[in-house]
Amino acid sequence: METILTEMIELIKNSTDGITAERRLVAYFSEWISEITGEALECMDDALAEEYKKMGYKIEKRDTRTIQFLFGKVNFKRRRMKKAEEKALYPLDKEMGFLKGEAFSPLLLRNIAEVASGTVLRKTEQAVSLLTPFSISHTKVKSVLDKVGSLQKNYTENRLLDINQVEKPKHKKKVPFLFIEGDGLMYKATKKKRGEIHRIQIAEGVEKNGKRTRLIGAHYFSSTESAADAWTLVQNYLFLHYDLSNTVVIS
Fold first, then answer.
1. Is the predicted pLDDT of residue 11 greater than 60, yes or no?
2. HEC profile for the chain?
3. For 237, which of 30, 119, 161, 228 is 20 to 30 Å away at the CA?
């Protein structure tokens, strides 16, 4: 800890102003956190490899992967493992949700897509560059938005649209009111084409916490295909989780 404090003080002292000092501190911590995160992931991979060995898996190879997180770029080694008559896999990638061939972490993908869904792609490019330790082009933003939309579509088609495959709660909720609000968010996909994210939210009401308010029991649904897909998600969710026989629904 003393070494870190000493290095921080030197960074600040050698900076010309507060902005420069903060930028240097961000870069310093990004590098430090990235390094220890890489070590942590490799420790996780060691433990996962032992668990998979007990299930009959064998190590095929150990190679390096680089993932861009919100806080910085992380390099780490992980094992590819194989079991007879089954496809090879990377246990650590599976555990962390790292997509095949994707250099961004799941949270980073999600955050970029969320920002991009509410503004133009170049504004998202600017926001990422200003608020994170790395930069991204507007074309990559479009690629991320398409990828997240595709994942959402596949999840919708393979699971959520089929209520028979969704785990059903033991008891359905009974509430006096339920509020449903839908909207469409337009984004510029290319020079000649626009895309749209259909978004719906439900809530049981509003509660105050001092001067702030928050939604009670809020859930959000979206689709890049059509409003009908989004509403199907909402209908299935309501059917599975609510008893609306004595509920006033305001939409």
1. yes
2. CHHHHHHHHHHHHCCCCHHHHHHHHHHHHHHHHHHHHHHHHHHHHHHHHHHHHHCCCEEEEEEEEEEECCCCEEEEEEEEEECCCCCCECHHHHHHCCCCCCCECHHHHHHHHHHHCCCCHHHHHHHHHHHCCCCCCHHHHHHHHHHHHHHHHHHHHHHHCCHHHCCCCCCCECCCEEEEEEEEEEEECCCCCEEEEEEEEEECEEEEECCEEEEECCEEEEECCCHHHHHHHHHHHHHHHECCCCCEEEC
3. 119
